[in-house]
Amino acid sequence: xxxxxxxxxxxxxxxxxxxxxxxxxxxxxxxxxxxxxxxxxxxxxxxxxxxxxxxxxxxxxxxxxxxxxxxxxxxxxxxxxxxxxxxxxxxxxxxxxxxxxxxxxxxxxxxxxxxxxxxxxxxxxxxxxxxxxxxxxxxxxxxxxxxxxxxxxxxxxxxxxxxxxxxxxxxxxxxxxxxxxxxxxxxxxxxxxxxxxxxxxxxxxxxxx
Length: 209
Prior knowledge:
By secondary structure, the chain is mainly alpha-helical. The protein has nine helices and no strands.
């Protein structure tokens, strides 16, 4: 007869898995993927290293789940920011502003999400991450086009270009900021990215007036 976990046992395992993921998020923000070994995460979570393998087969599997956990939080923040604005222009600007500002407030974490060398499975997740933000932007661009606020263009193509350019533009500032020192980022970075986005769309940026 196959063994079935009791509700109490399952609840304990679920709680332990959550503790592992929270510990991994903390380590990722402090040390990047290089600091998220199975042993390091186990130590931070307060469990034996061997217990880690009851939740994740290896570091690659842990890294994917960790990446998804953090990215879900970032995507939710962008959706919340967009929902606070009414005009297509402001909603588009909110996507870029929120993405960039949150990255620069947690530079080590953002560097890990965007560019740090990691397992190939993480690279695959990065593509999903970028496509998610592309789709958010593309939807807002399409709305602006329908309202006659932008010149004709392919929303998906433009959105992909903006996401790629934003990630590339952030790479240097993120790498230059010491851990836990987001104040070292120049104040002009986020406004410059928003201005670039509006120019790329073909809309006049009022800050240039």
